[in-house]
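User: Predict the structure for this protein chain, please.
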Amino acid sequence: MNTATYVVLAADTHKWYVVLAADTHKWAVFGAFIGGLIVAGALIWAVRVGMRYMDQEEPRPKAEEQPHLPAGGAVREMREIREPDEMPDMSKSGSRLMPYELHHSATRTGKDQKRRRWLPGSSGAFGSGGPGHV
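Assistant: Here is the predicted structure, written as structure tokens:
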């Protein structure tokens, strides 16, 4: 169903037909336009509120206020061999272990700090092609 109307224009002997933009959905187009204006207004309002909020924040630190490396240089990773700090057997002595006798962690620095290395030819993983345990 075509609701467009035609207007006949007479120019010399030629007749031209012009389609008028008389749409039946003009209220839908108008509503979409108003909705777009509302969305654009909401975005502008949100940006202005954000700018006001950022103005109330403390200023960002300057370059000289930034943290610096310590005098000794960067802190490096420390590796050490740890061994379990076992609970002593107090059943023989009869006295109980007091809280001040406990350590902060369940391990302590080991006496032997040499890393255990792989011994070539001592074992191999399944499917590695090695000779296995010799």
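The longest strand covers residues 6-11.
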